[in-house]
Amino acid sequence: MVALWRIGADGLALAGDSQPGPGDPVAAVAVAVGQLGNQTVAVTAGADGTVALWRIGADGLALAGDPQPGPDGKVRAVAVGQVGDQTVAITGGPGGTVALWRIGQDGLALAGDPQPGPGGEVWAVAVGQLGEQTVAVTAEVSGTVALWRVGVDGLVLAGDPQPGPDGVVWAAVAVGQLGEQTVAVTGGSDGTVALWRIGQDGLALAGDPQPGAGGGGRAGR
What we know:
This protein is an all-beta fold. It has one domain (about 5-210): 7 Propeller (Methylamine Dehydrogenase, Chain H). It has strands at about 5-10, 10-15, 30-35, 40-45, 50-55, 60-65, 70, 75-85, 85-90, 95-105, 105-110, 115, 120-130, 135-140, 145-150, 155, 160-165, 170-180, 180-185, 190-200, 200-205, 210. A hairpin with a 4-residue loop joins β9 (about 85-90) and β10.
């Protein structure tokens, strides 16, 4: 099921009726939220391998267009961002494929050819901005962390993929800004947290990776 919750100072309240996911089984394994003009939208990745777009309103969720099959047959990670005026989603999955989707009022459409991830199975993806360039960072089961330039017509690897600090980056990556410097933070299977500088030519580890406060495990999944 897919559900919308109102968030207030005192907690959460269910908004409208929960909706069944588009596939069977209907479990959503990943979800991301973004803006399509004035419309708030969500993209879900289902356990059945489908990718679906949802319109979000104050009273609940409504499926927008037809759910689409992921290029690998399975999707594990999804992120939403902007390329200029175009809202996009990026997905990754157990087959190692990274795919770009254009988001429109009527649903999702693949943009360009899906690309093979350099490290195999993709566990996490995040989107951000490097100046005017939209970028994505993927974390893969082999331990590889990769930077991608994102355009409206597809994805291109930027620089050389980098090994995660502990050999495996399971399922945690986020992109943000540190002043004018775009950065990524990754979480490893042993609890390690690492900071990466993002540049036009790729990723560079910034400082020494640090042990996570809670130790190891797959909490990011």
